[in-house]
Amino acid sequence: MYKTLSALAIFLAGATASFGQTGKDTSKVLLPKTKQPQKVNSITLHMERMAGIGPDGHTSSFQGTLEHLRKYEGGKLYPVMKNLPTDLTNMQEFCYVLDLAQFTYQGYRAGLCSKEYMESHLSGNKFNLADTVLLSKTPLKCYVSAVTGIRDGKPVYKMDVDNDGDFGNDEYRPVLKDASSEELKVSGSVPVKITYLNNDNKIVDDKQLVFVSPGHGNSAELYFAFPEFNYMRFTYKGKPYLAATTSFRRSGIIVVPDRPYFDRMANLKTIKQGQYISLGDDEFVLSRIINNGNDIVLTGADISGFGDKTIAKADAAKVSTAKKGTKISRQLGYIAPIASGININPAISSTGIVSTAKFKGKYLFIDVWGTYCGPCIAEFPHLKEVYSAFSRKDLEIIGLVDDRAPATTQQIFDKHQLPWANIQIDAKTSQTVGYKDINSYPTTFLLDREGKIIDIDLRGEALMNRLKLLIKGS
């Protein structure tokens, strides 16, 4: 299923992951059955899967114990495992959900949660409820289960590799600490059986490579990582390109001119569904990432520019006629979506609707943050320093808040006295559709005087230095 590390010459430079691909590309190719090239606007590209660190570098996500999660509404959604170990001390159970929408939906259909909880939970996690029609009515293995503890004085774990709800046939494995190398993460990973609904509405068996590591001095946490990604090489109008998914395969892709290897790519290069891929002077929309990350669908310009061995499927589709440079997308080099709403920061005596559109002619820094995001709040002193270093004719800041606890949010405003307007992302009075799917905080965007995004996720001194170069005489 997986290509080996050596087959694609994965390169590591210190703690920074680099990877490269050499040799023959074995991506499957299915060409339309026609003697003449067809001018169509939608193509599906198939990508090979590889075990290793993807273009987003070493990433992991922590998960609390099932004992903790079951205290809350929705706790019944998690599986009740059979044959829990009896020879472990300090035993803890964990369950990591790979597809939250499918997991919650199938739990609702099984009577494990109410419809109101399902709708609230999915909406709160930026899922479009209309897309439940795309989910499987048959339960899927869309999660992984593990149990940890101490055995013979050493930390160990069991992973339910068959995903059959039973630890009885699973073996103990050592919990590895400080596993920062790619080779160690891959060799220490476990392939877990999962299932997914493919684009033909059929349930498909697959394997998910999973690596676990202990929490930072906290036995009630376990970190999950997924050291695999998909990639392919292709040509467009004679120029070679390389495309690779992020490690959590369905979240986005990165497309760059082909090269023997390249270092970890910054978040600003990640392209998500609905965003644009630029190939020379032409643009394509990443319409969908399907089949568990194995295929990507692009729509846009005439696909005759692609090499014959690239296309897996081609179909006619409507194409945007907007000129390049005027399209709206939350990407580097594109016009930022407009956000507007009522200011909720009491330190600002603004009336009426606050809108990012009103700041054209100035550099605008958009800070997307959440009430319970510690790093977001820790950044406020730096932002206030930046705000005071430049005049209002040159720079403005606006906050978009995932306000999950209004009283707590107001306490934050009172303590930090932010001198710029803030808008609730999910308020009925807010128009923030271009930002509602953001679920990682803080996420920031720096816009030029024309409203085009010129940098993403700048913080601290990096933001100050960037603005000093842009705004002369400061």
Automatic annotation (TrEMBL):
CC terms in the record's Gene Ontology section: cell envelope
Domain Thioredoxin: from-to ranges: 330-474
Signal sequence range: 1-20
UniProt xrefs under InterPro entries: AhpC/TSA, Thioredoxin-like_sf, Thioredoxin_domain, Thioredoxin_ResA/DsbE_sf
Keywords: Cytochrome c-type biogenesis, Disulfide bond, Redox-active center, Signal
Any one GO MF annotation of this record: oxidoreductase activity
Gene Ontology process terms (BP): cytochrome complex assembly
Protein name: TlpA family protein disulfide reductase
